[in-house]
Structure formats: C-alpha cells, structure tokens
Specification:
2 domains, alpha/beta, 11 helices
C-alpha cells in the first residue's frame, strides 16, 4: 500500500536557511511539494491558495512574528497544522507559540530525518515538543498539555508494568536529560540508561522519549 506524501509550506525569511531546508527535505520520500514564503502575509496567502498539509514556521519574520502568523492562520482554519521551527528558546515564545495553536515546537539544529518524522507526526494529528522545552512546559504548564489530573498513585496503578528504576529514569527524561546525563545521575552505564528509556517508550506505547515525557506530564506523574 502506497504511503501518502505530505505537502508542506516552508515559512523562512533567511534565504540560505530556506534553500538548505528545502534541499534537505526534498530528499525525504515522505514529502512531496514544498511551497515557500518569506513573510507572514505571503504565508497566509499561500496557505489559502495551496492548502499544504503542514506549515514549517519561523518566528522571526520581517512583517509580523511567526507566532502571530500562526494565530491568524489557525483562526482562519482550526485544522491548520503548524510546526514552529526556530532558534528561539524563551519561555514567552514557547508558550505564545503553543497557545497560538502550533502543534510542535522544534529547534533548528534538529537533523533532517527527525524533522521529517515530526512533520509526519504532526500531519497524523499528534503533538511534538523539542526535548529542550520540556522543562519549561513541566514547570509552567498553563494548560498547554491538558492534564487528566491523575494522581501519582493512579498513574502507577495504570502503568504498574514500569519498574521503580524506570520511574526514576522517566522523571529525568521529563527533565530533558540525555542518556549520558541520566547515566551520570543514577550512576549507571549509558547503555543501561538507553535500555531503560527504550523499555519506557515500549511500555507507555509511545514513539519516542519526547512523547513519553508528554504522556507523563499529561497523566500527572510529575
């Protein structure tokens, strides 16, 4: 069965960045057409005309910010799927972007294969958060991740197949720690830390460590 390819709109005012992203993403089999825009006004017009599946939105645009552009796009079409792709990491920008309705917040240093995976994830209707912003979300959620208000005991009852060590590792994953940092903190090998993370991902029925962190936040473990 043939997999449906994804059309994207790349909103980026820096020419070299735009050309580089387009070239790299064009090599991905999951991506078909890549439309381009350099301003928020152009992005809004191209979305209206082309109706891409996913928008990659920079924050620093020359007319209005990508955050405000995202808000306007989603006001026009609540099903608009926007990924903020940026080098900005302030608390205000993170929360403003997610409150505006962005489905993902991604740092620009991400590799192309992971970005393609995120595009597919968002196109499929899910949310994705860069590990670097997870601590910000955890500390000041403000309703970004809808909580089930599940108690720690309830979470543990529902996910009783997680070991005590895996709970410890999961909390560090939520803190945005790398496998090496987890290993250092728990005095275990990096290989063991990686194995714990893989087990957690499998047991929580998620695709990656970021989704595991989001699920832990959403269901009240931390």
């Amino acid at each position: 069965m043939e997999t449906k390819t994804i059309n994207i709109l790349l909103v980026e005012d820096q020419k070299l960045m735009r050309i580089g992203l387009k070239s790299l993403l064009s090599e991905q089999k999951s991506i078909d057409t890549i439309y381009e825009a350099t301003t928020a006004k152009e992005a809004i017009e191209k979305y209206r005309l082309q109706k891409p599946d996913v928008i990659l939105m920079d924050i620093g645009l020359p007319d209005i910010s990508g955050i405000e552009a995202s808000k306007r796009l989603i006001e026009q079409d609540r099903n608009c799927k926007i990924i903020i792709l940026t080098s900005h990491l302030t608390e205000e920008e993170v929360f403003s972007s997610l409150h505006a309705g962005a489905r993902a917040y991604v740092m620009k240093e991400i590799n192309t294969d992971t970005l393609a995976m995120i595009i597919k994830t968002v196109n499929d209707g899910a949310m994705w958060l860069d590990p670097k912003i997870v601590p910000i979300i955890r500390d000041k959620n403000n309703g970004i991740i809808p909580a089930r208000k599940m108690s720690r005991a309830s979470f543990r009852a529902e996910h009783s197949n997680l070991t005590q060590r895996e709970y410890e590792v999961l909390k560090l994953v939520v803190d945005g720690k790398s496998n090496q940092q987890i290993a250092d903190e728990l005095t275990i090998s990096e290989h063991t830390a990686k194995a714990h993370v893989c087990n957690i991902i499998q047991k929580l029925v998620v695709d990656d460590r970021t989704q595991a962190a989001v699920k832990a936040l959403k269901e009240g473990l931390v």
